[in-house]
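for the writeup, i need someone to sanity check this before i put it in the appendix. the sequnce is what the collaborator sent (i think, or maybe the updated version? ugh). structure was predicted straight from it, no edits. if anything looks off just tell me and ill rerun, i have time this weekend
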Amino acid sequence: MADTASRKAYAGLGVRASGTRHPLVATAMVLPLAALLVVVFGGWDAVVTQASSVGVMLGR
């Protein structure tokens, strides 16, 4: 009985019965940490440079 209740609670959080999360839930969990790391380590310039390089490689 408790197992069923815990599954329903996790299902409300976007966790599937098999233990995998929906990709949007995983993204929502990771983005705040990624943004914090970019700010703390000053990696914004590196992200812009890499995005620009990929754009040039793709011909845009």
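DSSP finds three helices and no strands in the chain. Residues 2 and 8 are 10 Å apart (CA to CA).
thx in advance!!
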